[in-house]
Amino acid sequence: MGEAIVVTSGKGGVGKSTTSANIGIALALTGKKVCLLDTDVGLRNLDVLMGLENRIIYDLVDVMEQNCQMNQALVKDKRCEALYLLPAAQTKDKSSINTKQIRWLIAELREQFDYVMIDCPAGIEMGFKNAVSGADRAIVVTTAESASIRDADRVIGLLEKEKVPQPKVVINRFKSQMAKDGGMMDVDEVVSVLAVDLLGVVPDHEDVIRSGHLGEPIVLHKKTPAAKAYKNIAQRIQGEAVPLLLGEKERGFFKRMKRWFGFA
Amino acid sequence: MGKVLKPAVNIKGTKDGLLFLLDESRPFPAVLSELKYKLENASNLWDGPDTRVCIKLGNRQITRDEEKEMRELFSTHKNLIIHTIEADHGKPYLVDDQGIQLQAGTVRSGQVLEHRGDLLLLGDVNPGGTVRSTGSIFVLGALRGLAHAGGEGDDSAIIAASSLCPTQLRIANVVSRPPDEWETSETSGMNFAYLVNGQIAVDKMHHLSRIRPDIEWKDNRFKR
C-alpha cells in the first residue's frame, strides 16, 4: 500500500509541476515505484516537463469515464523503469472530474505504486479540492516572497480543514543572496510564519528552467545544487534525516575548506 | 403591548411544575419586562407551595448578566424555584464575558477566529488572518494579521502581542493602519494598542498600568 502525496501551492507559477516531476523522479531513482498524477485538467504541463507529451494516448478523464483501463493510460517514463505518468486531459476542464472519482483513482493507484505524486492545479477551487481529497500527505511549494507566502498560508489552513495531516513546505527558487540583502524572506522567517515543518529548500538556477524546457528534469542529469536539493527532499520523504543544504552554507563550507588548506 | 402580538412569555403548568417559554424572536429586555409584568400582577396566583420552574429560552443564548437579571425577577416570589434554564441547541449561555479564554493554534490567511470576551491566543496570527473579540485580545506569538478588539463597542479593550506587527488594528469602531515607524522603533519588548481620544495608540507594555490604573495589580502582602 503506497502513499499519495499532493503537491500544492495556491499561487500559480511557483513551481508545483517542476517540484512534482523532480521529486517523483528522485523517488523513482531510489528504487521506489512512483506514479505522477497530473490533476490540472485543461492546463496540463507535467507531461511537457517530463518530455512525455508525444506518448500520451489516454488521459485522466478517459480513465474516469472508463473509456480505457487505468494501465492503458499510464505513460511509462523513458528514463526510469519505475516511473509512470498519468496525464490530465487537455481538451476538457476541471468540471469533468469529481471528488469521488479521484478518490477512487488514487486508491487504485496506491495499490500499485509506492508513491503517488499528485500535481495540483493553482487556486483553491474545485480543482484544488479534487486533488487534495485523496491525499495522505501534502507538500506546499512556495517561493520566499510575501505574495507566495500569503497563499501558501491560506492553503495550509485549507489543508488542515480538509484533514490532510501535517503539510510540509518546500521553498522553491531560493536566492540566498537576495535573502541576505532583504529582497526576499530568509528560510527561518518563512518557516516561522508558516509554522510547519520544512521539507527542503531548492536554490534558484536557470538550469531548472532550461531542463524543463527540454523535457529532461534537472534531477536526472545535472550535478547542480537544485538536483541535490530534490534528491534530499526525496530522502526526507522516506523518513531519512538529511541536513539542509543551502547555496550559501555550501559556499561557507568551501570557504572553510580553503581556510584549512591555507588559501584564504 | 398589542393584542396581535404573541405573548413573549408563555407559562404552562406541567406535573413537574411550571414551564416558562420565552419567545426567542423578541429582544431579551422586552421579554424580561413582560415577565416582570406577569410576575408582579396576579401575584396571588404565584403564592402557594414551592414550585419547580423550568425556563426554556428557545433558540436564544443569554449572558450571565441577563440570567442574573432574570433570576432577580423570580426572586420576588420565594416559592418559585428555578430548576433548569434550557436552550434548544446546546448551552443556554453565551461564552462568559468574564474572565479570559484560552485558544491555541495559528490563525492563517483567510481564517477568522471569533470570540466573546477576552481572548488569550497561544500562537500566531498570520497576514490575511483575522481575530475578532468583544473584549481584549492578547496574543502570545506574532500578530501579523488583523485584530479587532471590543467588537461590540467596548472602547476600553486593548490588543497586546509578543510581536505586534499587524496589517491592521481595530478597537471598537476605530480602524488603524500601523504607521511604518512602529516596526522599527518598537519591536523590542512587548507592546499593546489601546484607544485614546478616538485614536489607536501603541505603547510599551509597562505603561499599561499607568494608562489603565483600574487593572493595575496592588501589592497587598502587608495588609493582612
Automatic annotation (TrEMBL), chain A:
Keyword list, A-Z: ATP-binding, Cell cycle, Cell division, Nucleotide-binding, Septation
InterPro entries, alphabetized: MinD, MinD_FleN, P-loop_NTPase, ParA/MinD_ATPase, YlxH/NBP35
GO cellular component: cytoplasmic side of plasma membrane; cytosol
Protein species of origin: Melghirimyces thermohalophilus
Molecular-function GO terms, alphabetical: ATP binding; ATP hydrolysis activity
Domain of life: Bacteria
Record: residues binding ATP: 11-18
Primary role: ATPase required for the correct placement of the division site. Cell division inhibitors MinC and MinD act in concert to form an inhibitor capable of blocking formation of the polar Z ring septums. Rapidly oscillates between the poles of the cell to destabilize FtsZ filaments that have formed before they mature into polar Z rings.
Record's protein name: Septum site-determining protein MinD
A family per Pfam: ParA
Homology family: Belongs to the ParA family. MinD subfamily.
GO BP of this protein: division septum assembly; negative regulation of cell division
From TrEMBL, chain B:
Keyword Magnesium annotated: no
GO biological process, one term: division septum assembly
InterPro entries: CAP/MinC_C, MinC, MinC_C_sf, MinC_N_1, Septum_form_inhib_MinC_C
Any one Pfam family match given in the protein's UniProt record, by short name: MinC_N_1
UniProt keywords, alphabetically: Cell cycle, Cell division, Septation
All residue ranges annotated as the Septum site-determining protein MinC N-terminal domain in the record: 9-85
Domain Septum formation inhibitor MinC C-terminal: 105-202
Entry similarity comment: Belongs to the MinC family.
Summary of subunit composition and partner proteins: Interacts with MinD and FtsZ.
UniProt function note: Cell division inhibitor that blocks the formation of polar Z ring septums. Rapidly oscillates between the poles of the cell to destabilize FtsZ filaments that have formed before they mature into polar Z rings. Prevents FtsZ polymerization.
Protein name: Probable septum site-determining protein MinC
Gene: minC
